Task: inverse folding
C-alpha cells in the first residue's frame, strides 16, 4: 500500500490505531491534529500541476460539444436552427460516435483522439443563478447557490495543505508562488481567509522590472480600522511580490518554449508564459488563465455560415491554445505533470434567441485535459427532449470535478477536500480513474453481503478481512466513487451505512494485502 | 447620538482632505487650506454646487466629431473603424482630463459612479457618438432625479445597443436589459424572479437606437416601433405585488409602459436601499455593519425613496458625523483613477492646454488613460456589465491590489516624481517644501509634508526612518538645515538647487511607494 493511500485510509471513517514509521499514534480520523496534519502534508505534496482555464461570460456548451445522437432535435426550427452547426461539419471523436466537437476545435479533437481529453457532460449546480457575477462567484467559492463565501476553493485548498499559508510565504522551503494567475486582476478562486493565495502577473519580465524594492516597513501594529486592515494587506502583497519577482524571472529566463505559438490568440499567449515557467522549473502548483467574450447574446454565428463567427473564434482560441500548450509541455518532457480544466459560469439556453445568439443557461460540458485523463466521457449528451424550461439539466455537480482533481490529481486527502468543500462530500468522477463497468465480481464465495437489496445499512461478512489493512470502496455503474461510512462489528463483519445512496446498482470493492473482491449491491428506496 | 446627525464643528485640515479625496480625485495643500476651518454646510454646498457642462471633446485639429457621420470622412470601413476607435480614445482621455481639472466639485466623480453603475462599453458599442451622448446623459442626471435617469438611460442609444435592447422585439424577447435593469441598475438580486425578467423584457420590446454607425448621417437618436412591441399584459410576481402592466398599442405604448415599469420597481423599498448602499460604498467604505445599515443606509434610503432626488442624499451623507468618523478616514483603497489623478493633483500638476499645446495635451491625457487601464480601471470599458469588480459587492477594494497592479502603481509614482518632459509632467517638489512652516528643520519638513500627503499619521519610527535613512542618509540631522539654507540664499545656483531637490524627490518616491499612500 502506498503511503498516501494508507494515510487517506487512516483518515477515513475507520477507527483504527495508526502505526507509521515506528511512531504510534491514535488517529481518530482527526486530520486537524498537528501530527496528522504534518503527516498528511508530507504525503499530499506531489509534483503535479493544475492549470485552470476560465471561460468568461457563459460558454455555449451545446455548440461546443455536439449531440450527434439528437441532431434532428438540435437543428429543429423551434430549437436552434439559426445557429446550428451542420452535421457534416462536426468533428468526430474516436470511440464516442454520439458526440462531436465544434468544427473550429481540431486541436482538441486530436488531443481527444490521443486519449488526453475528458468531456464531463452537464456540469453545474442546483438552483442555477443566471447572473454572471453571482454564478462566477459560486464556481469560484464552491458554495451552494444560496450560500456566500469570501474565500475561493483553490485558496482554501492551499491554506489547508500548506501550513501558515499565505502569511508565512514565501519561505526557505517554498520560495516559489504556489499559485500564479496570468492576469492583472486576481480571481476570487484564490482568496484565502487573508491575502490572495495567487500571484497575479502579466508577464514575469516586466514584473521583475517594475516591482521595486520592498519599502522598509515599520513593524509597529496598525490600528484596528479599515485603513489598518487594508494597509496590512498591501504590505503583505509588497513583501511577497518583491520576494517572488526574482524567482519568476529566474524560471522565465531558464525556461524555453519549444514550439511556435501563433500570435493573436489571447489564451495561447497566457499559456505560453505558463509553459515557459513550468519548463524553467518553477515549483508552482496551480496556474490560472482566462479567456473572455463568451456572453454571446447575439450574433454568435456569422450570418451566412454558422460554423464561423464570434463563438467559433473563441472555441478556436481555446482549442488551439490548449493544443499548442500541450505540445510545448511534451517537447519539454513535462506533459505528464500537467492537467488542465476549463470552466464557465454557466452554459447557455438550449433554445437560441432571435438575434442568432443564446441567453444565459444552466448545465454545460466541462473539459479536463492532460495525459493523466482516464475516462473520456463522463455522463451523457444532454437529453434535448428533457429540458428544464429551456435549459439543459445538470448531471454532475461542479464540486465533484473539484474533488476529483484535488484528490486524484493533486493528491489531497479526503479530509482536506471535505474541508475545502465546506464539510460536504462529493462523489469523485472517474476523470483520472479507470471506469469500472459492470464487471463480474470475482471470488464471490469469499464474502457475502446482506440484506441485498439494501435500504439504510448493509453488512459485509467475510473470513478474509484484515482489520487495519482493508480498503473498502463503493462505486456506481458509471465508476463514480461514493464516500463510505463503515464500522467493524467483529473481525469478520463490517457494517456499511447506505442511507446517503440513491436507488440503483453499486459495487462494493474490498481490497487488502491478500485479496481483492467485488460484490454487487442494489439499493432500494 | 445618531450617525447621520449633522457634524457641527469647523473642518480640520485632515477632514477637509478626507472630503476632497472622496468627492473629487484627490487633494493638495491649496485645496485643503481652502476648505479647512469652514463648516460642512458651507463646504459641501460648495462642492455639490451646479456646474456648467464642458464643451464637446475635439480631435487633434480642434474640430468636434460628435456631430459627424460615423467614421467620417473615411469611406472604407476599415478606415472608418480606425477613426471611430481614435475618437473613442479621445473621449476617454478628454474625460480623464476633466477629472483632473475639476478640482473642487463632485460632478465628475459622481458621473464616474453612474458610468460604472449603468455600464455601456465603447468596445461593444463602437460608435464614439453614442458614447459621448451617454456621457452627456450621465453627467446631466448625475445629481438629479433617479426616476428620470432610469427612464432616460433605458432609452439611451448606447445602452440599447450594449444590452441588446435593439434586438428585443415581440415574439423574440432578448432578456439582457430586462435582467440587468433589475439586478444591477435598480433593485438588486433576490428581489425579483425569472418571470419578472421575462416580463420586464416584454415591456421594453420595440425600442431601438437610430443612427448606429451610420456613415451618411450625424443624427443619433432613439425610436419606438409600435409594431415590434409586445402588446400583451405583463404580469409580475409577488416581489412586485403581482403588478400587471397593461399591454398597449400605438406610438405612446413604449413610454407609458416604461414609466409604469420604472414606477413599479422604484415603489419597492429594496430599490432605494440598493442604490444608497452602492453610493455609500463608493464614497465612504465597504463594510456595512448592522449599525450602519440601521442608522445610515435606512434613513438615507427613506429620504431617497420620497422623490428619488440624488443630491439631498449625498448632501446629508457628507454633512453627517458618521462621514467624519476618525476610524473611517483612509478606509478605502484608492481606485486607479484616484491614484493616477490624485497623485498629480497633490503636486498641482495641470492638464496641458488643449488648444495652445494640443500635441502635449493628447499625449498627457492618453498617458493617464493608459495608466488607469493598466491598473484595471478603463472608463467606458468595464470588463463586464457589473462594472469594476471592487465596487460590485461588499468589501472588495482589495481586488484593485495585486502583485502586478501594486508594482505598476509604484512604477507610475516613480515616473511622475522623476518627471516626464514629453508630457510636461514636471513636478516641483521644492514648491511644496517651501510652503512648510520651517523647511530647514527636517522634523517639521517631514511632519508637514506627510500630513498633507497621507490620510493618517505615519508613526514616529517611520518619520525618523524618513529623515535619517531616506532624506539625509548617514548624515547628522543639522546637515539638512545647512543645505537648505544654502539653497535658499543662492536660489540661482543650479547645483545647490538640484542637490536639495534630489533629496526631496527621493523622499517622495519612497513615500508614494508606501502602503499608506494607497489609502484614500
Result:
Amino acid at each position: 500500500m502506498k503511503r498516501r493511500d494508507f494515510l487517506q485510509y487512516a483518515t477515513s471513517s475507520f477507527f483504527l490505531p495508526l502505526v507509521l514509521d515506528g511512531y504510534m499514534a491514535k488517529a481518530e480520523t482527526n486530520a486537524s491534529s498537528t501530527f496528522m496534519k504534518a503527516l498528511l502534508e508530507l504525503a499530499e505534496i506531489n509534483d503535479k500541476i493544475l492549470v485552470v482555464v476560465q471561460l468568461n461570460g457563459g460558454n455555449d456548451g451545446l455548440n461546443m460539444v455536439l449531440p450527434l445522437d439528437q441532431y434532428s432535435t438540435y437543428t429543429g426550427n423551434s430549437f436552434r436552427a439559426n445557429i446550428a452547426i451542420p452535421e457534416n461539419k462536426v468533428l468526430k471523436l474516436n470511440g464516442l460516435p454520439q458526440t462531436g466537437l465544434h468544427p473550429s476545435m481540431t486541436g482538441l479533437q486530436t488531443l481527444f483522439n490521443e486519449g488526453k481529453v475528458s468531456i464531463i457532460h452537464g456540469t453545474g449546480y442546483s438552483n442555477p443563478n443566471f447572473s454572471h457575477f453571482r454564478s462566477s462567484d459560486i464556481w469560484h467559492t464552491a458554495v451552494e447557490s444560496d450560500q456566500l463565501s469570501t474565500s475561493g476553493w483553490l485558496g482554501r485548498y492551499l491554506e489547508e495543505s500548506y501550513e501558515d499559508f499565505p502569511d508565512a510565504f514565501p519561505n526557505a522551503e517554498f520560495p516559489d508562488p504556489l499559485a500564479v494567475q496570468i492576469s492583472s486582476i486576481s480571481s476570487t478562486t484564490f482568496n484565502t481567509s487573508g491575502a490572495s493565495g495567487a500571484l497575479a502577473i502579466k508577464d514575469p519580465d516586466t514584473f521583475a522590472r517594475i516591482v521595486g524594492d520592498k519599502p522598509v516597513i515599520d513593524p509597529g501594529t496598525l490600528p484596528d480600522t479599515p485603513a489598518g486592515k487594508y494597509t496590512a494587506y498591501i504590505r503583505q502583497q509588497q513583501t511577497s511580490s518583491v520576494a517572488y519577482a526574482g524567482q519568476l524571472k529566474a524560471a522565465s529566463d531558464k525556461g524555453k518554449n519549444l514550439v511556435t505559438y501563433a500570435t493573436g490568440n489571447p489564451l495561447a499567449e497566457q499559456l505560453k508564459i505558463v509553459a515557459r515557467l513550468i519548463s524553467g522549473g518553477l515549483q508552482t502548483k496551480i496556474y490560472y488563465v482566462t479567456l473572455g467574450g463568451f456572453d454571446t447574446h447575439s450574433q454568435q454565428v456569422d450570418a451566412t455560415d454558422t460554423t464561423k463567427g464570434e463563438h467559433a473564434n473563441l472555441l478556436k482560441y481555446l482549442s488551439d491554445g490548449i493544443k499548442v500548450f500541450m505540445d510545448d509541455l511534451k517537447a519539454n518532457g513535462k506533459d505528464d505533470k500537467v492537467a488542465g480544466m476549463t470552466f464557465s459560469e454557466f452554459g447557455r439556453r438550449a433554445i437560441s434567441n432571435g438575434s442568432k445568439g443564446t441567453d444565459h443557461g444552466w448545465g454545460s460540458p466541462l473539459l479536463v485535459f492532460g495525459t493523466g485523463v482516464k475516462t473520456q466521457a463522463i455522463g451523457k449528451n444532454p437529453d434535448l427532449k428533457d429540458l428544464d424550461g429551456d435549459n439543459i439539466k445538470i448531471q454532475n455537480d461542479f464540486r465533484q470535478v473539484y474533488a476529483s482533481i484535488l484528490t486524484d490529481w493533486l493528491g489531497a486527502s479526503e479530509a482536506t477536500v471535505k474541508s475545502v468543500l465546506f464539510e460536504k462530500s462529493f462523489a469523485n468522477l472517474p476523470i483520472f480513474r479507470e471506469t469500472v463497468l459492470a464487471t463480474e465480481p470475482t471470488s464471490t464465495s469469499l464474502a457475502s453481503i446482506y440484506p441485498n437489496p439494501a435500504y439504510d445499512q448493509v453488512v459485509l461478512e467475510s473470513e478474509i478481512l484484515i482489520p487495519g489493512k482493508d480498503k473498502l470502496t463503493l462505486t456506481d455503474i458509471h465508476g463514480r466513487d461514493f464516500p463510505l461510512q463503515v464500522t467493524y462489528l467483529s473481525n469478520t463483519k463490517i457494517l456499511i451505512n447506505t442511507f446517503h445512496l440513491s436507488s440503483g446498482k453499486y459495487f462494493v470493492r474490498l481490497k487488502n494485502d491478500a485479496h481483492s473482491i467485488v460484490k454487487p449491491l442494489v439499493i432500494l428506496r | 447620538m445618531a450617525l447621520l446627525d449633522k457634524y457641527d464643528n469647523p473642518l480640520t485640515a485632515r477632514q477637509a482632505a478626507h472630503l476632497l479625496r472622496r468627492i473629487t480625485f484627490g487633494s493638495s495643500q491649496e485645496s485643503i487650506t481652502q476648505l479647512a476651518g469652514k463648516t460642512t454646510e458651507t463646504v459641501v454646498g460648495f462642492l455639490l454646487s451646479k456646474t456648467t457642462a464642458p464643451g464637446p471633446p475635439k480631435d487633434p485639429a480642434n474640430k468636434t466629431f460628435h456631430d459627424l457621420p460615423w467614421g467620417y470622412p473615411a469611406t472604407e470601413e476599415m478606415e472608418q473603424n480606425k477613426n471611430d476607435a481614435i475618437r473613442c480614445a479621445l473621449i476617454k482621455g478628454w474625460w480623464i482630463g476633466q477629472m483632473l481639472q475639476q478640482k473642487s466639485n463632485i460632478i465628475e466623480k459622481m458621473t464616474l459612479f453612474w458610468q460604472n453603475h449603468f455600464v455601456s462599453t465603447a468596445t461593444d458599442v463602437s460608435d464614439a457618438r453614442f458614447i459621448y451622448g451617454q456621457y452627456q446623459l450621465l453627467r446631466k442626471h448625475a445629481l438629479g432625479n433617479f426616476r428620470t435617469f432610469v427612464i432616460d438611460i433605458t432609452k439611451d442609444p448606447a445602452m440599447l445597443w450594449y444590452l441588446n435592447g435593439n434586438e428585443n422585439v415581440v415574439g423574440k424577447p432578448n432578456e439582457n436589459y430586462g435582467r440587468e435593469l433589475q439586478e444591477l441598475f435598480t433593485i438588486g438580486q433576490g428581489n425579483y424572479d425569472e418571470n419578472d425578467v421575462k416580463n420586464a423584457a416584454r415591456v421594453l420590446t420595440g425600442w431601438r437606437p437610430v443612427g448606429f454607425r451610420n456613415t451618411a448621417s450625424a443624427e443619433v437618436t432613439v425610436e419606438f416601433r409600435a409594431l415590434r412591441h409586445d402588446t400583451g399584459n405583463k404580469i409580475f410576481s409577488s416581489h412586485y405585488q403581482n403588478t400587471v402592466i397593461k399591454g398597449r398599442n400605438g406610438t405612446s405604448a413604449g413610454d407609458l409602459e416604461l414609466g409604469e415599469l420604472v414606477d413599479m420597481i422604484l415603489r419597492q423599498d429594496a430599490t432605494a436601499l440598493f442604490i444608497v448602499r452602492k453610493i455609500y460604498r463608493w464614497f465612504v467604505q465597504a463594510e456595512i455593519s448592522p449599525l450602519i445599515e440601521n442608522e445610515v443606509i435606512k434613513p438615507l434610503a427613506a429620504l431617497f425613496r420620497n422623490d428619488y432626488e440624488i443630491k439631498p442624499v449625498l448632501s446629508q451623507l457628507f454633512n453627517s458625523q458618521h462621514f467624519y468618523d476618525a476610524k473611517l478616514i483612509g478606509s478605502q483603497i484608492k481606485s486607479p483613477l484616484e491614484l493616477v489623478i490624485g497623485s498629480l493633483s497633490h503636486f498641482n500638476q495641470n492638464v496641458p492646454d488643449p488648444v495652445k499645446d494640443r500635441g502635449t495635451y493628447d499625449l498627457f491625457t492618453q498617458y493617464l488613460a493608459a495608466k488607469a487601464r493598466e491598473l484595471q480601471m478603463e472608463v467606458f470599458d468595464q470588463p463586464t456589465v457589473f462594472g469594476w469588480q471592487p465596487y460590485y459587492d461588499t468589501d472588495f477594494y482589495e481586488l484593485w491590489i495585486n502583485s502586478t497592479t501594486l508594482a505598476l502603481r509604484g512604477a507610475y509614482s516613480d515616473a511622475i516624481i522623476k518627471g516626464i518632459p514629453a508630457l510636461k509632467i514636471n513636478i516641483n517638489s521644492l514648491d511644496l517644501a517651501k510652503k512648510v512652516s520651517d523647511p530647514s528643520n527636517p522634523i517639521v519638513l517631514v511632519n508637514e509634508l506627510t500630513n498633507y500627503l497621507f490620510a493618517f499619521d505615519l508613526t514616529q519610527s517611520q518619520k525618523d526612518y524618513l529623515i535619517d535613512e531616506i532624506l539625509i542618509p548617514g548624515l547628522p540631522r543639522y546637515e539638512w538645515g545647512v543645505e537648505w539654507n544654502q539653497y535658499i540664499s543662492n536660489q540661482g545656483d543650479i547645483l545647490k538647487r538640484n542637490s536639495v531637490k534630489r533629496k526631496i524627490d527621493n523622499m517622495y518616491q519612497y513615500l508614494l511607494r508606501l502602503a499608506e499612500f494607497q489609502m484614500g
